[in-house]
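Q: What residues go here?
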C-alpha cells in the first residue's frame, strides 16, 4: 500500500508488495543476472537485516518478482524507497538507477508484450566514496526494498504529478494548481485536464510540450466553500484530475489536500495567521523487527504514542519519511518538520564529489513528492553539517535557494550545533539549535537557551522564529536506580524535565523537539558516536519496542 487514499480511478494500479525472491550478490562478481540463484524469499517492503542470514549484511542484494501481463501495455514501476542504491532491470534490461533510501522513483517499461516478465531490483547498502549521504552514522542504513512498490499501466501521455499550493487572500481560499504531464513523443498534443475539488469543477489551459517530454500546466482558482486544515480540525479534500484527448479519458490522478498557510512574522511561526508553538519529537524510522520498513500499523502506533505524550509535531530526522506516515499526520493534524537526508557531515564529507548532486536530487524529490501534505509546515536541510565554514555556507545557500525555488510556501530551517560560530542563520527563515544541556554539557537549559537567542540575533537570525530542535539524554530502558546516575531512566527524565521546564517558559521559542521519540539502531564502528552501548542511540522516550520510559510521563506533564 502506498497511500492512505485511492490515487486513481482510471489508471490501473497494482501493489507489488508481498513475497519476492532474493539472493545476496557477491561483491567481487560482475553482475550477471541470469546466473543469480534466488534461494530466499523476503518480504517487500522489508529490510534484509531481519533475515537470520543477513543480520549485519552490507553489500548488494537482488530481488526478483515475476509478472504476468494480459494485454500489451506500458508499465510504470513506482518504488517508494530502496536502500540505498537501486538498479532496476526488466527482462534483463536496465531501466533505471536511483540513489537514496528515503525518496521515491519510477522505472518505465514500454510496450510490454503479453506473457510472463521478470522485474529485478538490485539494492546496495554499502558505504564508500559513491555514497555521500548514507555513511556510517548515528542511525542505521538498512538494505533492501524498504518501502512499497506499485505497478501502473500508463499510456503515451500520463499525469506525473499535481502540485497544490493553498493561498489565503482577502478573507478567502484560493489555490495555485499545477499539473505535470509526461508524454512519450515531444510533438504538440491536444489534451485537457479537468479537475474537481471542494464541489467545484475547472480545467487547465493550453498544453505545450517541453523537449524532455514534460508539460507543466498551472492556474489559480478560488474555493469559497473550502474549510481550513488545522491541527484541531484537519479537514482534507480529494483533488481529482482527469486527462483527456477529445472524448477519450486517458489518465487520472487523485491527491489529498488541505487548505492552510504557514508564515513567519515578528519572530513567530503562524498557521493560518495564528502563532503556533511546535511541541514535538524527533523520529527515526526504526524498529528491531522491521528495520526501517515500518508497516502502517506500527506507524499508527507511533502517531498514537506521539499524540498521547501531548506532542503536536514531529521532525522527520534525518530524511524524508514514508508518505504513509505523512498521510497519517495529515489526517491527525500532526505538524511536520521534514528534512532532507544528511546528518553530521563535516566539511570534508561535504566535499565528496557526489555530495552536491545527491543533495540536489533528494531536495527535489522530497519537495516534489511531498508538496501536497498540509501537515508539512517546515522544510529543512543538512542537520549538523559544516554551516560554520565559508565553503559549507555556499552549499547551505545553494540548497536553501533550490528548495525556495521549488516551493516558496513553507519556511526553511536547518538544525545547527555550532552555537556562536554558526554562519548561516541569515539564510534561513527559522533558526534552530541542537543543544544538549544536562547531557553533553552541564549548562543550565534556560540560560543556554537565552544565550542561543543571543547567538542567533547576532548571527543573522534577528527577528526570526527560534526552535530548540534537539535536546535530551540517554536512558537505558529498564535501567532504574535511585542514584539517578547517567544512563538511568531517572536521569533521563530529570534531563527532559529541566529542558522542558525551561523551554515552555520562553515565549520567544516557536518550537521544541525532544531527541528522540524511540531508541534506534546505529552503525557498529569504532568512531566515538557509533561505539554507543548496545549499538543503539538510547535517547528515546520509548525504547526500540515502543515501551515507554519514565520520561514519557515527564513529557506528558509539559506537553499535554
Ligand atoms: C545530534 C544528531 C542526532 C543524534 C544526537 C545524539 O545532535 O543530530 O542525530 O546523533 O546528536 O544523540 O547525540
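A:
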Amino acid at each position: 500500500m502506498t497511500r492512505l487514499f485511492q490515487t486513481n480511478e482510471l489508471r490501473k494500479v497494482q501493489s507489488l508488495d508481498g513475497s519476492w525472491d532474493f539472493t545476496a550478490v557477491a561483491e567481487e562478481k560482475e553482475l550477471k543476472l541470469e546466473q543469480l540463484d534466488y534461494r530466499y524469499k523476503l518480504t517487500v517492503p522489508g529490510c534484509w537485516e531481519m533475515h537470520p542470514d543477513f543480520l549485519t549484511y552490507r553489500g548488494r542484494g537482488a530481488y526478483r518478482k515475476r509478472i504476468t501481463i494480459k494485454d500489451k501495455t506500458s508499465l510504470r514501476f513506482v518504488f517508494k524507497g530502496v536502500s540505498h542504491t537501486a538498479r532496476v532491470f526488466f527482462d534483463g534490461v536496465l531501466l533505471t538507477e536511483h540513489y537514496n533510501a528515503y525518496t521515491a522513483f519510477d522505472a518505465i517499461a514500454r510496450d510490454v508484450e503479453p506473457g510472463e516478465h521478470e522485474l529485478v531490483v538490485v539494492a546496495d547498502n554499502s558505504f564508500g566514496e559513491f555514497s555521500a549521504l548514507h555513511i556510517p552514522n548515528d542511525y542505521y542504513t538498512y538494505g533492501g526494498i524498504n518501502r512499497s512498490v506499485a505497478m501502473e499501466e500508463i499510456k503515451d501521455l500520463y499525469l506525473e504529478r499535481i502540485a497544490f499550493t493553498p493561498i489565503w487572500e482577502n478573507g478567502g481560499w484560493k489555490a495555485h494548481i499545477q499539473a505535470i504531464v509526461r508524454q512519450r513523443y515531444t510533438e504538440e498534443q491536444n489534451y485537457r485536464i479537468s479537475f474537481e475539488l471542494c464541489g467545484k469543477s475547472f480545467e487547465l489551459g493550453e498544453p505545450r510540450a517541453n523537449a524532455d517530454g514534460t508539460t507543466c500546466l498551472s492556474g489559480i482558482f478560488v474555493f469559497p466553500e473550502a474549510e481550513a486544515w488545522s491541527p484541531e480540525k484537519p479537514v482534507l479534500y480529494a483533488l481529482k484530475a482527469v486527462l483527456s484527448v477529445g472524448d477519450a479519458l486517458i489518465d487520472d490522478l487523485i491527491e489529498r489536500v488541505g487548505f492552510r498557510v504557514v508564515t513567519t512574522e515578528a519572530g513567530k511561526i503562524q498557521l493560518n495567521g495564528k502563532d503556533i508553538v511546535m511541541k514535538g519529537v524527533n523520529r527515526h524510522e526504526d524498529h528491531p523487527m522491521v528495520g526501517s520498513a515500518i508497516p502502517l500499523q506500527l506507524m499508527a502506533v507511533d502517531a498514537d504514542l506521539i499524540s498521547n505524550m501531548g506532542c503536536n509535531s514531529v521532525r522527520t530526522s534525518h530524511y524524508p519519511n514514508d508518505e504513509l506516515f505523512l498521510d497519517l499526520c495529515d489526517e491527525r493534524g500532526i505538524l511536520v518538520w521534514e528534512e532532507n537526508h544528511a546528518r553530521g557531515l563535516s566539511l570534508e564529507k561535504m566535499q565528496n564529489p557526489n555530495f552536491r548532486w545527491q543533495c540536489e536530487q533528494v531536495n527535489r524529490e522530497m519537495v516534489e513528492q511531498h508538496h501536497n501534505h498540509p501537515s508539512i509546515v517546515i522544510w529543512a536541510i543538512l542537520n549538523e553539517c559544516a554551516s560554520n565554514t565559508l565553503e559549507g555556507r555556499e552549499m547551505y545557500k545553494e540548497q536553501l535557494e533550490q528548495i525556495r525555488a521549488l516551493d516558496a510556501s513553507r519556511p526553511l530551517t536547518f538544525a545547527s550545533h555550532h552555537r556562536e560560530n554558526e554562519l548561516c542563520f541569515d539564510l534561513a527563515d527559522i533558526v534552530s539549535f541542537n543543544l544538549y544541556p544536562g547531557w553533553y554539557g552541564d549548562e543550565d537549559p534556560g540560560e543556554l537557551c537565552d544565550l542561543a537567542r543571543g547567538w542567533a540575533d547576532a548571527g543573522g537570525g534577528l527577528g526570526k522564529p527560534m526552535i530548540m530542535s534537539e535536546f535530551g539524554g540517554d536512558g537505558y530502558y529498564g535501567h532504574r536506580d535511585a542514584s539517578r546516575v547517567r544512563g538511568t531512566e531517572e536521569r533521563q527524565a530529570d534531563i527532559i524535565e529541566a529542558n522542558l521546564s525551561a523551554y515552555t517558559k520562553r515565549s520567544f521559542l516557536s518550537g521544541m523537539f525532544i531527541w528522540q521519540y524511540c531508541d534506534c539502531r546505529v552503525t557498529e564502528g569504532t568512531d566515538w558516536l557509533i561505539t554507543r552501548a548496545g549499538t543503539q542511540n538510547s535517547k528515546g522516550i520509548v525504547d526500540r519496542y515502543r515501551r515507554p520510559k519514565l520520561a514519557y510521563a515527564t513529557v506528558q506533564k509539559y506537553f499535554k
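A: Context that may help when evaluating the design: Residues 48 and 144 are 6 Å apart (CA to CA). The first strand starts at residue 13 and ends at 15.
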